[in-house]
Design a protein that fits this description.
Order of helices and strands: HHHEEH
Number of domains: 2
Shape: globular
Number of strands: 2
Strand content: 5-15%
Radius of gyration: 17 Å
Structural class: mainly alpha
Largest sheet: 2 strands, antiparallel
Helix content: 40-55%
Oligomer: single chain
Length: 103
């Protein structure tokens, strides 16, 4: 994805979630443990990166009758698929960074 407007919107959404992570979800010790690597809720690289690859998981689907069908093991499957994607990116000697957000 190269669309600068869309990358800006993605950054806003991710940073909103990250602010919540740092303020409420992660806890003081976790935040303190991250200090040496100088990471925080701000993600300016999301706009600077030449491309963004977004990976989504589908928690459920809808069958022909409109009934909701849960997709079991979706989290495990997306983790495996993303790991394979990152390995392929590394083999091509392209830099990558991961960012998780519940959007």
């Amino acid at each position: 994805m190269q669309d600068t407007t869309l990358k800006s919107k993605i950054r806003e959404l991710v940073e909103e979630e990250e602010r919540l992570n740092y303020a409420k979800r992660m806890g003081e010790k976790w935040v303190r443990d991250l200090e040496p690597i100088k990471t925080n809720w701000m993600k300016p690289y999301l706009e600077k990166a030449p491309y963004l690859v977004l990976v989504f998981r589908q928690v459920y689907g809808v069958d022909a009758t409109g009934e909701r069908k849960n997709h079991y093991y979706n989290e495990i499957s997306i983790c495996i698929a993303t790991g394979i994607l990152l390995a392929a990116i590394q083999v091509r000697e392209v830099g990558s960074i991961t960012q998780h957000a519940e959007i």
